[in-house]
Amino acid sequence: MVKSSFLILFLLLFSGVVFGQKEKPPIADAIKNDSIKVIDPLYREDQFYAALTYILLGDKPDGVNQSGFSSGYHFGFIRDFPINQRRNVAIGVGLGLSSNSYNNTLLISKPAGQLNYQVINESETSYDKNKFTNYAVELPIEFRWRTSTASNYDFWRIYTGLKLGYIVYNTTKFKSSAGDIRLSGVEDINKFQYGLTMSAGYSNISFHIYYGLNKMFKPEAKVEDSQGAVGMNAIKIGLMFYIL
């Protein structure tokens, strides 16, 4: 009787192990066979970004030309807020830093403590470098469309929006054999800058453009002799790199 009961119990336990193994395969085998895939239904495209741009000066005063390579460097982070169920349409809000250098023929000096703006006559004046540079905190706000999914990291994207910038520091540099002129904290430069942006591309690399909507210099900044406004706005064209 005892032997019969033990045999019945053994058979029940053995059958339970066998059927349990059939119903629940080992985790290691499931992972090995790629049968377990974790998909985040609430994924976002939060991204770090870095951009290199070539800068054009728009609405320049008469006689002012660009000289050399004017460049911008941009770094930051954008938080993604999807607004549809598929999560391929979103609003992006970010925070970043940028450095922008403008090589041109407008000499900024400060004789007798007063700012002066003079167009360099390149046929009469020999110089090595003339530029002004600003360093800004940026706030990009984007409307974002892409073909991404929760498991696809290579996709097409078109991001458009507005970028707000606040210049925290600026410098000017004129260098020639006759002498150098260096200034910092030029009061006539508009600290608040804003413009339209668009980034379009595939995977991590996108074509990027920024069009400044306001003038870089305040209305009181006038060019010597002509008394025309210095004005100018920035147009930046380059490449944007997104890092997930």
Question: What does this entry look like structurally?
Answer:
This protein is mainly β. The chain has 2 domains: 1-36; 45-243, Beta Barrel (Porin). It has 2 helices and 11 strands; from the N terminus they run ααβββββββββββ. The strands form 2 sheets. An 8-stranded antiparallel beta barrel has the order 1-2-3-6-7-9-10-11. Strands 4-5 form a two-stranded antiparallel sheet. The radius of gyration is 30 Å and the shape is elongated.
What is this entry, summarized?
The chain has 244 residues and is mainly beta.
Largest sheet, in brief, is:
8 strands, antiparallel, barrel
- Low-confidence blocks of residues: 9-14, 16-25
Assign the CATH class of the largest domain: Mainly Beta
**What structural category do the secondary elements indicate?**
mainly beta
- Output the CATH topology of the largest domain: Porin
Total helix count? 2
Topology, number of strands: 11
Order of strands, widest sheet: 1-2-3-6-7-9-10-11
Ordered list of secondary-structure elements with their pairings:
Blueprint: H1 2-23, H2 27-32, E1 47-58, E2 71-82, E3 89-103, E4 106-109, E5 116-119, E6 129-146, E7 156-176, E8 179-184, E9 192-202, E10 205-212, E11 233-243
Antiparallel strand pairs: 1-2, 1-11, 2-3, 3-6, 4-5, 6-7, 7-8, 7-9, 9-10, 10-11
